[in-house]
Write a structure and sequence with these properties.
The structure is a homodimer. The first copy, chain A, is an alpha+beta fold and about 210 residues long. Chain A has one domain: Jelly Rolls, CATH 2.60.120.10. Chain A is built from six helices and nine strands; from the N terminus they run αβααββββββαββαα. Chain A has a five-stranded antiparallel beta sheet. Chain A has a four-stranded antiparallel beta sheet with strand order 3-8-5-6, with no helix packed on it. In chain A, helix 2 crosses helix 3 and helix 5 packs across helix 6. Chains A and B meet through helix 4, helix 5 and helix 6 of A and helix 4, helix 5 and helix 6 of B.
């Protein structure tokens, strides 16, 4: 019996980089077997970028390497600081995931984000193998399209042009988050400066 | 005469996306014409990633699409908020660049970073065409390998497997910065929380 609190990750059965592959493959299946979800993934993958956009045919070639991942509610998908043992990037198709960046205790409204269809998670650990940068927990049943490290490597080998365009898109998504985090950092630095000023003022008054 | 305060960007002469290409191409030349710098670029491009690593031959294929860019000291390479009119990613080969993220006035030590050989700049605007996220100014004479948007597009067409691997590496670099910025955000949120606590305490005392 699969552990209900362990997500299916859609890792490739042949990938040596996925130690828990045998437990995983029994619980996922090719995304192409569910045509409505596969079509949804095709649309979401085709997010236009300034540089390149995948055609529908190219997006379908990506989808052919994806597995359908179904995760129950209240499941921890990634835990901050975990080593990248789940070598799979997930494209959310249905349901929502809470992302906790470990900033609880700071200013309100910045520490937790809820993301939904079209968002991707796990792509950074897939790329660099470094520990997770945030904790992700499902807040509903989640259906996602999973692309494992082995799947991405095979995509690069078999459809390199498509893989190159996909990676431009993934890099762009990460860049978007970097810009957004930079804005948050600016807000925090302004809050800190303003608090410091009030603290100094109070000291002078007393 | 070229304006000494406008950097050479190494844009492709044929790229329609580079409006200032005619002014630029007179001041750059193929990187391959300077074998020592080309060899340095090959080594720097081959930074190992968890996923894929370019072979020396593959890195040389990237270098073939690069132009040598020489920038005088005290030149503004990118200005925060600028639209991405300079569609070129620069791999620094010699010299140093100060990166100002606009956080001056916040906690000391976080607002300005100095980067050197092996660092890349301009890759985010190249990818998404969004405004620059930071201002970059040379603090010495800088020699860099420039890959324009047109060059990257041609690399994707002509050597897609190499381009895919290069983009994995670029995405990984951006992810690295995202992780680092996340850590800085955590530090700022802790500073803000600690200042708020002291402010509350002083209020109770007075």
């Amino acid at each position: 019996m699969p552990d209900p609190k362990t997500p299916s990750t859609g890792a490739e059965p042949t990938s040596p980089a996925a130690p828990d592959a045998s437990a995983i493959t029994s619980r996922t299946r090719p995304l192409d077997e569910t045509p409505t979800l596969a079509a949804m993934a095709v649309e979401l993958i085709r997010t236009p970028t300034a540089l390149v956009q995948l055609s529908a045919d190219e997006a379908r070639q990506v989808v052919a390497f994806m597995r359908m991942v179904v995760v129950p509610k209240d499941t921890v998908l990634l835990r901050e600081g975990d080593a990248g043992s789940v070598n799979t990037m997930l494209l959310l198709l249905e349901g929502q995931v809470a992302v906790d960046t470990g900033l609880a205790g700071g200013a309100p409204g910045l520490e937790i984000a809820v993301i939904g269809p079209g968002s991707i998670i796990g792509e950074m650990s897939l790329l660099d193998g470094a520990p997770r940068s945030a904790s992700c927990t499902t807040v509903s049943i989640v259906k996602a399209a999973g692309l494992s490290r082995g799947g991405l490597e095979r995509l690069i080998e078999e459809h390199p042009r498509v893989a190159a365009k996909l990676m431009v898109g993934v890099a762009q998504r990460i860049a978007e988050r970097l810009r957004s985090l930079g804005q948050q950092l600016l807000v925090y630095s302004q809050i800190a400066a303003s608090l410091q000023a009030r603290l100094d003022q109070q000291r002078h008054e007393t």
